[in-house]
Amino acid sequence: GIVGGATSGEVGFPPSRRKGCAMIECFKTQETGRIEKIEQPQAGCWVNVVAPTAEERSWLEGELGVLPEFVSSALDEEETSRIDFDEDVNQIFVIVDYPIEPGEDGRDGARQYDTMPLSMVFMPQKGMFVTVSLFDNVVVRDMAAGRIRGVDTRYRTRFLLQLLLRISQLYLVYLRRIDRLSSRTEERLHASVRNEELIQMLNLEKSLVYFSTSLKSDEVTLNKIMQGRIIPLYEDDQDLLEDVLVEIHQAIEMCNIYSNTLSGTMDAFASVISNNLNIVMKVLSVITIVMAIPNIIFGFYGMNVGLPFDGVPIVGTWMFPTVLAAACCLIAAWIFKRKGMWH
Length: 343
Description:
By secondary structure, this protein is α+β, with helices and mostly antiparallel strands.
């Protein structure tokens, strides 16, 4: 990886961060090999910035020296994955999309998986590596907590690739969760077709669309890194980048498979719902026809003119139309059942 040189003067946190607020944190790998939090930025460290305020943006641009256009791009939620290089200040800017779970971005109403941008800036002049994100996320938390083996903040290229590898692995984890959630929702749909299950399936389908779009843009960025023109790659870095590409390709393939499966499932259930509605309407139509027979018979007898068997004992009373109506209903029901219209 790239190892930075000495700092050009001491760099301190902005005043709001000296009071213990954790939105700007600094980490460095110690001689023991453990990554630990440090009080002030220094050469070979990693500066993690989350949702910076206006004062913190000024600190990033003025004190730390990050280009203003890089800071603006890092805080744009709709920014697509890309890599950029500024020759004047010798800064490399990399932005990729990482996956998030429902509600992880702080929006309580979110019901689907989504992606958010994570920006990384190489600072060779000060020997630092800077990450900027809009929300606290599991990727940087894992790196800061030392859950990733072999992390050394002094080797910025390797550190970047380890971040990308963790992001690609996180995509695979969330895709498997989506698949399991889709299977459970499908089982509930077999038992009862309700709006809740259908909305859940729609949210999962949207999640796969977000994942697929972000994975493809991340793949383009990784291919540019693979060329080695902007970020020099050593042999170990090359192997690590190949591992990242393998994970990304696997995630893209899984995303396509799950998306096609879920789309087919949604189409099948749409047909099932339509068919169930047709069955209900058919049964209701049969019931309506059968129940109309007594109305017709009693309607005739209600005119009290020229009634059959009028005056005949028992037969000419109200019992005859009642028995006749019941018999006609039973015959009609039997005919409909024979034709398969009654279930």
